[in-house]
């Protein structure tokens, strides 16, 4: 063929151009759908989706190409070589496969984008130019090199841009449709741009001769319609397939998501339940355990397999608790509950949340206190489906409560039960005794003179003594007995199994013996003695308060009997106690009204018979003029502390009267005043005495204070310090009632005293009892051996006076020589003694002088 030389004119069918672009966009859009299916399809189905997608997209691009070729209209007929057309279709399919392969990758790297763009752009260009090569007509074509190159660049550039946008569209699900459509438009425009740029690069020149059309076909209008229709159907089918697949995949994905969320929710619930510190047990309507969490396994020691299927949660609880609660529910709801009903879910079935404390029984048999809350499980329609039990371990709470209860019911110092626990146990003991017709005994124990220990050595010493006493009482009691501390130095022993009060009294006497053992504190030795009162149920009272009240009467009777004794309650004690209460009230009023008076008993020199001093003795004269004996109110005053006030009154009165008495006697007299144990321990004692002496201008050397051995026992060092303070200004010290104390006489080597006063009990039976004279003589000899003056009290007859004088007693005192008298009578008595003695007194003085002269004569011989 030869070139004619003229260019062939051509025109464009605009509708077909537009249709070609739409087909390119549709094909691109379908390709993105296939890429999405590829990314979500199972591994075995990806090849199928890639093949179908490549065929569908490739056919669409190829159709766009040939519709675009049909839109290019020249005045010469054009046919197409079938084999070459088929090759162009394969190139389009290859380009589509490259695009799909790139878009379905999970991560789009630069290398992947570059490679995919090259394959896709190159495939589209190959398809186009292969299709151009399939043209057979009188118009032969050649290409403008620059436009040809530009078409390749356009194909590559638009492919890269479209692939990138398509990948982003798949990654961003919220804007997936818009991004996919944008990518499809860009890719469609890119394909069309490459096609029409390539067409513009072609230059058609009319040729002479005959064209070889073998193996070629022409495309009629019907063929064009068939290509367009087939293309649309293929693309529609592809899009429909993608949509159906997407719908099915979406449904499957939703189901998978729901299943995953359900599984995650189940796992989350399971994780939450297993991470809970509380035991959680779910049961069905019948109470059978359906599920448990890890905490339940840990708490109870059972595995979940062992727990699930148990007929009831009650199998895990203390049977006695279950039975007790069932009885309570029967009473509360007045229902005749059937045996075996589920106690735990009883309230929950009635619509209430039941929360209370229970006791689980662990696998090893140990008990676990829990706080259990049981609620009903209902479905959305409100139907009851089961029950949920949530239990918290309250072991530490119970231990703390037990510690608090122990603190509330026990004495902090001794650890013994206190009054509250005693009351609780006494109620149980009395109830039991009432049912079994038994007796309950109660012993009230009060330590004698315990305050002296606290006052002399301090509370730490007193606390030590109380702890020792508590330990000894506990050791001496039976296992069934309860030893309690009431407070201060009072203890109680409750004996639920007492057969007879006298048997209880015998045990109380053993207690006095046990407590009599010395207690050592800070180098000091104490001998504690108790006064014990005993009462019994039902004879003496039906409750603890009555038993304690009457035991208190018996205990005070024990103190009145000399302390360190045991007394069983009798009704007469209550009368005595009432009298005692009245007496105490009157005594307090007497202190306010100054109803006391001081009487003076003279003391005589056994050698000369002269009055050497007086002893001040307090008396209580009621408003009606009657006198109360000292033994009736002094112990009560000592016990109540009123003795300190009374003692101060005696000191001030006696110091005021001293000048009158001394003036009447014609010489300064020695003034002797008793100090009670409580006075002796009073920290203001020395200051009070010195003030009384100063106010009345009395020389301290004329004052002699008398203390009993009982006031000194227990704290010799403290006693020595008090005596030293008294002796410092010149006050003399005398031991009153010498010989009847519990301490022995060793203390005389350590405590400086000026006089010993022999108790009247050693003098009273002289001439009647062969033992007492010897004892009196021994005491006098002891005093003389220690170079201590000695005075005998209670001289009531001549024989006693003679014996004492014969033994070398320095001074004597008693009714035989002079009775206690008020100050005015004492003044008169002393004045008469100074001027003229009575016949009786003359006889007594003569006896004293004769005995004295006889003793001196015998000593001189």
Description:
This protein has 861 residues and is of the alpha+beta class. The chain has 29 helices and 29 strands. The strands form seven sheets. It has an eight-stranded mixed barrel with strand order 21-22-24-25-26-27-28-29, surrounded by four helices. It has a five-stranded antiparallel beta sheet with strand order 10-9-13-12-11. Helix 27 links the parallel strand 28 (789-792) and strand 29. Helix 4 (110-133) crosses helix 6, helix 18 crosses helix 19 (630-640) and helix 19 packs across helix 20. It starts with a strand and ends with a helix. Residues 851-861 have low confidence and may be disordered.
Quick tags:
861 residues; alpha+beta; Beta-Lactamase; Alpha-Beta Plaits; eight-stranded mixed β-barrel; five-stranded antiparallel β-sheet; 19% strand; rod-shaped
Task: Summarize, please.
The chain has 29 helices and 29 strands. It is an alpha+beta fold. It folds into 4 domains: 3-241, no CATH class; 276-399, PAS domain (Beta-Lactamase); 411-569, 2-Layer Sandwich (Alpha-Beta Plaits), CATH 3.30.70.270; 591-860, Alpha-Beta Barrel (TIM Barrel).
Summed up, the helix count is 29
Give the tally of structural domains. 4
Approximate strand percentage = 15-25%
SS elements, strand count: 29
CATH superfamily of the largest domain: EAL domain
